[in-house]
Amino acid sequence: CFENLPGSATVLATLNGVPCGFSAVVGKGLLIALGFNLIDKFDYYVPIMEQLMAELGVKKSVTLSGRDLVAVLRANDKQGFLFAGNFHEIDCEDQAELSLGGERLVLDLNLRQRCGVILPLNLELPQSGTLKYATCEVLAVKRKGQKLELDLYAPCVKGFELGFSGLEILKARLSAGKAELRRTDQGWIVAAKIDSGINPEMKLTLQIK
After folding, report:
1. Mind listing the pLDDT tens digit of every residue in the chain (209 residues)?
2. 3-state SS assignment for residue 21
């Protein structure tokens, strides 16, 4: 039936040359049909999916250095969220690279077994300032005078980071673990070190000018 569709072509074949994947133009889109199933148990399916997405004109929005974690980016030109998950029975680390608003970001991720987080990117803060990124989930942000309080969910193995711009931060305090404050050309970074066994829900308090 694919032979009768415009633009029909073979995109995948077996080692013996037997076609097992077809593409065709349907309306304003492109259809790909496979003659086999794809499951999540084999790494060699990854390059197959990358090839299929390239055939469809889909470009990667986020790239991981390894294959231990999964990540999906949902964003517009200015801000968005990175959905990251660890489906393994062990703690895992990975590095995510993405581009948002013409700016390249490289995030070091470490997650406990069987957990997921929604990471904010370019989140506007109350009154002024921007949370450029966070490698932990931010549940709530409150501005109280010269203090900024962030409720966090950090199911991390070693620690996490938050990057800020448009703020002058004087001090950072974490309810669990240690928070180190560093100035950069773009603003400030709060780097947190925590123990993997602690409650992942915690509060970060920033003294701002």
Report:
1. 556 667 788 888 888 988 888 888 888 888 888 888 877 667 778 788 888 888 778 888 899 999 899 999 999 989 999 999 999 999 999 999 999 988 899 999 999 999 999 999 999 999 999 999 999 999 999 999 999 999 999 999 999 999 999 999 999 999 999 999 999 999 999 999 998 788 999 999 999 99
2. strand
| pTM of the complete model | 0.82
